[in-house]
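Intended use. Records like the one below are meant for learning the mapping from a protein sequence to its folded structure. Do not use them to infer anything beyond what is encoded.
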Amino acid sequence: MVRSANPRLRFAPSPNGELHLGHALSALINHQQAQQLNGTLLLRIEDIDIGRTREHFIDQIYEDLSWLGLDWPQPVLRQSARLGAYRDAARRLDEMGLLYPCFATRKDIQLAAQAKAAAANQPIARDPDGAFLYPLLHKDLPPGEIERRKSAGEPFALRLDMERAIAAARQASPSWPPSFVERDEDGQINSVAVDPSRWGDAVIVRKDVPTSYHLAVVVDDEFQNITHVTRGADLAAATGIHRLLQILLGFTPPLYHHHRLVLDQDGNKLSKSGGAQSLTALRQAGHNADDISRLIGMT
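Structure written out for the chain above:
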């Protein structure tokens, strides 16, 4: 069931770089949908990536969105101020016996995943984001080994025991597999089945921050009573693990819409890391908000 409250949407950029045309599309689609629903569009700053977050990028987000003609209610939620809420949610999952510590580095995981694939003469297993699927290196560490490593100050993440999580969710959910409600590009409403196991034993609490994107976004959507999540098609696969967490935590799912992406001349998604031209640069070059709408195909 989708929430019955007044429509509430959110645009949630990460301040680890400048906004580009892809962000403009998502922000404007959210704004358009909020107007159609006579709802409220919130701005959320997803700044849990402390190592890459920069305050001047947050200022630019405000400037770019205002330039596009958008406004939003105050105060703006910043995830960096919500770490306690994420700890509480992770504690609930841990008390259910669904989390375990993992001390492995990225290099450890890569080498183990490659070795596992070579031994089975199969391609390297990857999650929907393209990362190495966790090869269960530390899933069954003896309690004494865990305590020894923790006492030595070795950094660790907390991973979701996917097998146990699915078993717990099956008990809590009236039907399986889980699904979400999606509004497609034509406005049709469909039920879409998901397979959380594709993510393997995903990280729920990172080594450097007491959460992960997956946990934080689910907790914040519930906290802000978000009724409609409108985001890029590249995040559609993430809805599988988000639905699993929503079931485990007893949260009400929103209605989803995964919109088209803005692609570069090679057919790739625009990205900050790929050097996509920023909205700030376009504004400084003399473009206006109407130009942006045309560039992203909204007018």
